[in-house]
Amino acid sequence: MASPPTTAPCTKAAPALDLLTVPQVMARLQLGRSAVYDLLRSGQLASITLGRARRIPAHALTDFIRTRLEQEAAA
């Protein structure tokens, strides 16, 4: 009886996409809920909506902080 073909394990693992909640972003930035939603509304901080839940990718928070640091350094 023939054995099933073996497949090579995938060597490229997809990077895990960490999604943060608004309260988690509030804690990391030490800002209030309204301030975080203002950043989301203005497009300064990227997010996705899953159903009724708003989630912020961790890389979007990092990009936001990096951009703000660059703006502060240029001023």
From TrEMBL:
GO terms for molecular function: DNA binding. Keywords: DNA-binding. InterPro entries: HTH_17, SinI_DNA-bd. The keyword S-adenosyl-L-methionine does not apply. Residues 19-68 form the Helix-turn-helix domain. The keyword Amino-acid biosynthesis does not apply. Pfam families: HTH_17. It comes from the Bacteria. This is DNA-binding protein.
